[in-house]
């Protein structure tokens, strides 16, 4: 069989690529190793920046999101027992949309399939062939046996654990924060309107409203820590300690997800080789410190689909500039995550603090809360608003 674009991976990046290409009238086939049911249940991100939502809307892919996702325009820092609200919508005129990733994935799968898009779930052993030729191929296995799909382009959207990035063979730049976050989902109503960042000597903690009945929490922990070290009682004791303030109690509920994430980043340079183009976490991972990953996956998808469309109109310039275009925003977000990480994690006494860094982080926080110009610059990058970095 053959198509114009083989899209490997049905996460936000691959689903956005496949939907947008179909809407542009460019044939594609989407290949996903998991089942449809599995990817529609996988909870991950929840905050989508306004420019990314507008990008989806422009392609007719945001109807349900716009109809139901709450908008958030502020968060709260909590430290030394006090609340410090930060209103970024007022500074930027833009919002985050709170929409659990599995709902976005569910919407995008439905729109693609209902529109007649071709997809194979449960594929195995994906290999790429001839990516430096004009007619590459993807080989894989499905229930019926070995398959070969010839195409003009391969979109490698198979995430951090995928295989397509191994075919690029460029440089992978890595950074390890040396910090773990225990990622939790609780069947508990949100305890605040939006996001609460707790900066505390016992370690960073965060609260993020997801739905009226489910709330995400994070607790800083040693990297590589075992989830079993965090029974229900310990989790809630730490959340109350690190996030609770007078008038800002934390509502408890059963924990439905408990996972230790080691905070690390990587960036693959370049993001392409021959006719293979990476998009999303197959190319770059940014630790969820600033909730940027899903937004970057969509950014790549918008640019890749525009560039492929330009190719079919005889202009290969956008494909040639694809890495540069995507990585401009990726590096801004990496830098921001590092900056924010210093604020979040420098006051912690376990591991023992670096007192100099702790004072720098406090100075940074005071500037953010005391200077409107500093707050505006922060808000712009927190929402990814600047059109051109
Ligand atoms: P995905 O979502 O990992 O999708 C990749 C898809 O490829 C499939 N796959 C394969 N298919 C075929 N053949 C193979 N060999 C394959 N190998 C893998 C996988 O099954 C999967 O379906 O990557 P994509 O599309 O690049 O999207 C990236 C986002 O999922 C990710 O950046 C975000 O979830 C990151 N993230 C957050 N981002 C935000 O913007 N805002 C947030 O609030 C936010 N919170 C988070 C997060 C990530 C988290 N985790 C899981 C570390 C919270 C958490 C806890």
TrEMBL record:
Q: Which GO terms describe its molecular function?
A: FAD binding; oxidoreductase activity, acting on paired donors, with incorporation or reduction of molecular oxygen, NAD(P)H as one donor, and incorporation of one atom of oxygen
Quick check: keyword Calcium in the entry?
no
Keyword annotations of the record: FAD, Flavoprotein, Monooxygenase, Oxidoreductase
What highest taxon heads this organism's lineage? Answer: Bacteria
Q: Does the keyword Oxidoreductase apply?
A: yes
**FAD-binding domain location:** 3-336
PANTHER family per UniProt: P-HYDROXYBENZOATE HYDROXYLASE, TRK SYSTEM POTASSIUM UPTAKE PROTEIN
The entry's protein name is p-hydroxybenzoate 3-monooxygenase
Species assigned in the record? Amycolatopsis sacchari
């Amino acid at each position: 069989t053959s198509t114009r674009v083989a899209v490997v991976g049905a996460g936000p990046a691959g689903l956005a690529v496949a939907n947008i290409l179909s809407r542009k009238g460019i044939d594609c086939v989407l290949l996903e190793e998991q089942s449809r049911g599995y990817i529609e249940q996988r909870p991950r991100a929840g905050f989508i920046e306004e420019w990314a939502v507008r990008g989806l809307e422009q392609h007719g892919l945001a109807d349900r999101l716009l109809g139901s996702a709450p908008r958030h325009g502020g968060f709260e820092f909590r430290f030394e027992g006090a609340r410090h609200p930060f209103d970024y919508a007022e500074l930027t005129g833009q919002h985050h949309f709170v929409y659990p990733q599995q709902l976005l994935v569910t919407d995008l799968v439905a729109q693609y399939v209902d529109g007649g898009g071709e997809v194979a779930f449960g594929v195995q052993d994906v290999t790429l062939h001839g990516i430096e030729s004009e007619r590459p191929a993807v080989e894989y296995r499905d229930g019926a046996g070995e398959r070969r799909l010839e195409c003009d382009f391969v979109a490698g959207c198979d995430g951090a654990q995928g295989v397509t990035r191994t075919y690029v063979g460029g440089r992978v730049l890595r950074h390890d924060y040396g910090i773990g976050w225990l990622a939790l989902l609780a069947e508990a109503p949100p305890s605040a309107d939006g996001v609460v960042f707790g900066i505390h000597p016992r370690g960073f903690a965060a609260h993020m409203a997801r739905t009226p009945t489910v709330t995400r929490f994070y607790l800083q922990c040693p990297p590589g820590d075992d989830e079993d070290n965090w029974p229900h009682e310990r989790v809630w004791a730490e959340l109350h300690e690190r996030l609770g303030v007078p008038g800002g109690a934390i509502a408890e509920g059963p924990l439905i997800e408990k996972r230790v994430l080691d905070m690390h980043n990587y960036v693959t340079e370049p993001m392409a080789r021959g006719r293979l183009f990476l998009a999303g976490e197959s190319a770059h991972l940014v630790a969820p410190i600033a909730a940027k990953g899903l937004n970057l996956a969509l950014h790549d998808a918008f640019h890749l689909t525009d560039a492929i469309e330009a190719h079919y109109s005889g202009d290969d310039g956008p494909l040639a500039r694809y890495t540069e275009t995507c990585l401009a925003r990726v590096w801004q977000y990496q830098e921001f995550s590092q900056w924010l990480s210093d604020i979040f994690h420098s006051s912690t006494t376990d591991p023992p603090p670096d007192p100099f860094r702790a004072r720098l982080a406090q100075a940074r926080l005071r500037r953010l809360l005391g200077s409107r110009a500093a707050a505006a610059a922060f808000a712009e990058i927190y929402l990814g608003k600047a059109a051109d970095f």
